[in-house]
Amino acid sequence: MSTLTAADLSHERDFARALDAQDALASFRAHFAMPLRRPDDIYFVGNSLGPMPLAARGLVQQELDDWARLGVAGHMGAHRPWYSYHEQLRAPLARLVGAEEHEVVAMNSLTANLHFLMTTFYRPEGRRTRLLVERGAFPSDTYAVMSHVAARGLDAEAEVIEIAPREGEWTLREEDVEARIAELGDTLALAMLPGVQYRTGQAFDIARLTRAAHAVGARCGWDLAHAVGNLELALHASNADFAVWCSYKYLNSGPGAVAGAFIHDRHVRNTELPRHAGWWGNDPKSRFRMEDRFVPSERADAWSLSNPPILAVAPLIASLAEFDAAGISRLRAKSVLMTALLEFQLRSISGVEILTPASGASRGCQLSLYFPTDSRARYEQFLANGLACDYREPGIVRLAPAPLFNTFDEVWRAAEIVRRTSN
Predict the structure, then answer these.
(1) Residue 60: HSE in the Cβ half-sphere, 13 Å Cα cutoff
(2) CATH of domain 61-324
(3) CATH code of the domain made up of 6-33+327-420
(4) Segment 174-218, tens digit of pLDDT
(5) Which residue in 90, 48, 81, 50 sits closest to 317, CA to CA?
């Protein structure tokens, strides 16, 4: 049972409402279609699918109208010409992830991008054949890594090395990752790590672990599915070799939306790197000569294969405009405060175990709660009480107050739902 009195709870809600009244980002909520069944419902599941930016509808409709009006001529004559459509994403993506414009590209899906970039950056040779991943990674990553290594003719069970948290712990210690990298030494070809672990919400120091991989002569890539739009990133400065992400979670660009990739400048400019090739990665100056020889552009675009899916890209343009207007630094500052407030309230409720690290630097906006018994029933109670969240085995409920559209009062009310259903 909670030790807080009714007066305590009232004061806490007053504090949450005061934070909302002072929030310079509060107006951004009105820019989204919040999928709420009832006015008091709470959407804390933007870490699975972000809500629709209202501007997305108009952008998609514009493309449909241009398609109907212009047909093929829309490639050059649409309101936003389709031929160069993807170029609109470079600058806002670069600002969002801390990269140079030529280092980022919106393309494909996350898992497809992971396969494409492993083709370039996992180059087993001699003793250097191992690929390091976290145990308990998102299944799609595990499937991609194992199948990719097997497709190279290697024994994936032997070559893919998994690192797990210590016995009795939920999260990885970064010093343990460093030690394992050092131990693998010149047998390690690639470390493939998460920016934020999807189940626990733990965030990792990208620069630190990249340095560890480079110190033994290996390359380091990152899955940023739960980090992009959540953390303030500095991919270029981190020296990461590559990163991939989806954009339907914190980037709010719709189910199955076009994903993204980062390739560091030193690799982008190396046109001799092995890669899968398609005509959209060819140098635009020679693309329409229809020549047999692939000439990669000196941009991350060189890893893209086909012209972008316009109707899937349009919502991302709308979402990135919101991030640009809000500023990722301001969003991150609000997120740290929101998550700290949620943690403070949850820690006063008996029977709630928070798996996510307590340090703000080691987490994003997600808090993962573990219920050793009746976890699915607890999750269903949360949903029934208007708290949209999600469930992950074993017994984990994830709450993600996103600073772009969630409020401090919702943080208070979400904790109250957890409190009520704990009695």
Answers:
(1) 16
(2) 3.40.640.10
(3) 3.90.1150.10
(4) 999 999 999 999 999 999 999 999 999 999 999 999 999 999 999
(5) 90
